[in-house]
Amino acid sequence: MIVYEEFHFGKEKHIAFYHPVDFSHFAHLHRSYELLFLRRGKLEITVNGKEFSMQEGDLALVLPYEVHSYRDLGGSVCDVAVFSPDYIQEFYSQTGHQYLERPVFCMEQGQRKRLEPYLFYDASSLYLTKAALYETVACVLSQTRTCRRKEEDKDLLHQILLFIRQHYQEELTLQELADHLGYSRLYLSRYINHNLKLSFPDLIHEHRVCQAIYLLEHTAMPVSDVAYDCGYGSLRSFNRCFKRITGKTPREYREV
């Protein structure tokens, strides 16, 4: 699934820490940076359609608006920081039109242990956090190069996903999206297929199912209400799409 995470929009001084185990996460994007340290196990990260393997001790840096996902390859234990561009404003300004050729990198053990508390656990000192993050991006740039990307691609992807986020409960068509954004329907169809590896209808279904998963996990709403709240006109079509994407029916998913 691909979803735009509004709660990681990158507002000033925002930073969040996570420590997932057996970590897998569907494709998503946000305005914040995302830094991951693989403490144990193996992990596969996909960034903008390219797959990279991670071994124990590796780190990965995902830039703003990059579509990325994770797949656990066995016993992954991770530290994750999602932080606003405000923390590394100079780096953000210089690389806003670029991407990392290889987002996975290594850090010398002593250096990593010294920075870990400020990268993944303690944000009480703004200056120490900024210093640790700047030292980290310096480490990244010593191991890979940045490549130019079209600013239009980043902006357009953001606009597409934001429009879907705002209108997924409605009967949404590609023509409506094209009219809203001022592009031809054919261009948007090809753009979505190329960048997200999905058709427009499948993108809508994946976003709706993502919202349904949240409601199934965090509310006691009946499955039929979840279906209608997520834009499905019938319970049958909701069940079919949900099972195709997740491998389970909504009721099976809630019971796990």
Entry summary:
With 256 residues, this protein is α+β, with helices and mostly antiparallel strands.
Report helical residue fraction.
40-55%
Computed Rg: 19 Å
Based on the coordinates given, report the CATH architecture of the largest domain: Sandwich
Number of beta-strand segments: 12
Strand order of the largest sheet: 1-3-8-5-6
Uncertain segments are none
- Report the structural category: alpha+beta
Domain count: 2
CATH topology of the largest domain: Jelly Rolls
Task: Tell me, briefly, the overall form.
Answer: globular
CATH level-1 class of the largest domain: Mainly Beta
Major sheet size, sense and barrel closure: 5 strands, mixed
Strand content: 15-25%
Quote the distance from N terminus to C terminus: 19 Å
Please, how many helices? Answer: 10
- The overall average pLDDT, rounded, is 89
